[in-house]
């Protein structure tokens, strides 16, 4: 059935349907966790999945949509986590207002670092960009470890870690932020700014020749990615209650990148699915002890052999499109207009 013959659901109604289903998901999840049907152990895994969904979706902006290869996502996550944790521990705010302030501060500080790193780094491409962002991530970790001796007072508590962080992260606020992240990124990528970012991915020279400010849009994509990585970091600090620089090693950036590649670069739904699977799988395979990481690695190898473009490629699932296919078509109207 062609798109010409299909009835289209108005955009406000699309958002209303998706929003209603998302609210239903939040309510059901909260009821199941609140009544103990989902145990505390599994609820922690679900919260961790939500954090990694934000990380994967945000990195997908820079890799899948923008077409760059940054390897410093853990650095932005660390900056956001420590900024939020220091704010909450120093102010003593553990209310929802304090949580919201910590999330915002974590995201803004990470975005500032995104500007500082992005403007010079995005002049490079490919392997060179990967190396410089990898260096940034490692510099951040070293600074967090040693900055107290330079300042002369305790700020990050170095290798011992920042303790007594209020455990404010839970299922509800984590997945509200997951929904906000996905909506904001989706809305931006559907706008003219998103089309400019896509054009840079497809052919940067052609995009620049048509008048697109490639430096601005590359920096915009990079900063947007860094902001939401900082938000995820803030959630991560409230999830653990303890932050150490070793939580943000190079392998953390690689794990997030693997989620994006496995799900499909340029597919938000792919990032959500792969983040869910790759976060839950190691936990669910703990019964197999030492064999669990072998099973985890084999899954990655099999997917990359048989589906090198990722699970979803660049396809994004749309509930509205599925509903449209079930609606009656406009064939009668087309016949009257002499189009059929």
Describe this structure in words.
The protein has 14 helices and no strands. With 340 residues, the chain is mostly helical. Helix 2 crosses helix 10 (250-263), helix 6 (171-190) packs across helix 7 and helix 7 packs across helix 9 (214-240). The model is unreliable at 330-334 and 336-340 (pLDDT under 50).
Observed structural traits:
single chain, mainly alpha, 340 residues, globular
Largest sheet: none
- Poorly predicted regions are 330-334, 336-340
Form type = globular
Averaged pLDDT: 85
Strand proportion, as a percent range, falls in under 5%
- What distance lies between the first and last C-alpha atoms, to the nearest angstrom? 13 Å
Total helical elements: 14
Helix amount: over 70%
What is the N-to-C succession of helices and strands? HHHHHHHHHHHHHH
What's the structural blueprint in terms of helices and strands?
Blueprint: H1 11-34, H2 40-65, H3 73-91, H4 96-121, H5 126-151, H6 171-190, H7 192-202, H8 204-209, H9 214-240, H10 250-263, H11 268-284, H12 292-306, H13 319-326, H14 331-336
């Amino acid at each position: 059935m062609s798109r010409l013959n299909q009835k289209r659901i108005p955009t406000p109604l699309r958002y209303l349907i998706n929003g209603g289903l998302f609210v239903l998901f939040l309510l059901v999840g909260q009821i199941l966790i609140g009544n103990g049907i989902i145990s505390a152990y599994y609820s922690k895994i679900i919260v961790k999945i939500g954090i990694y969904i934000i990380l994967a979706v945000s990195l997908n902006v820079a890799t899948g949509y923008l077409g760059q290869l940054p390897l410093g996502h853990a650095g932005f996550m660390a900056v956001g986590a420590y900024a939020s944790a220091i704010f909450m521990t120093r102010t003593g705010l553990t209310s929802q207002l304090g949580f919201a302030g910590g999330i915002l501060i974590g995201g803004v500080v990470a975005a500032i670092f995104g500007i500082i790193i992005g403007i010079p780094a995005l002049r490079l491409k490919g392997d060179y960009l990967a190396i410089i962002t990898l260096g940034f991530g490692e510099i951040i970790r070293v600074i967090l470890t040693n900055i107290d001796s330079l300042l002369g007072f305790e700020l990050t508590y170095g290798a011992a870690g920042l303790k007594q962080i209020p455990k404010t992260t839970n299922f509800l606020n984590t997945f509200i932020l997951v929904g906000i992240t996905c909506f904001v990124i989706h809305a931006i990528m559907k706008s003219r700014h998103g089309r400019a970012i896509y054009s840079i991915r497809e052919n940067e020279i052609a995009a620049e020749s048509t008048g697109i400010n490639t430096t601005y849009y590359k920096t915009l994509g990079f900063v947007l990615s860094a902001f939401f990585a900082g938000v995820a970091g803030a959630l991560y600090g409230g999830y653990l209650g303890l932050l150490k620089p070793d939580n943000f090693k190079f392998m953390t950036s690689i794990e997030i990148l693997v989620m994006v590649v496995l799900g499909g670069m340029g597919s938000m739904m792919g990032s959500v699915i792969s983040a869910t699977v790759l976060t839950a799988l190691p936990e669910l395979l703990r019964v197999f002890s030492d064999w669990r990481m072998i099973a985890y690695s084999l899954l990655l190898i099999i997917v990359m052999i048989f589906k090198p473009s990722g699970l979803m490629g660049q396809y994004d699932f749309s509930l509205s499109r599925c509903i449209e296919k079930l609606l009656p078509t406009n064939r009668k109207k087309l016949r009257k207009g002499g189009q059929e």
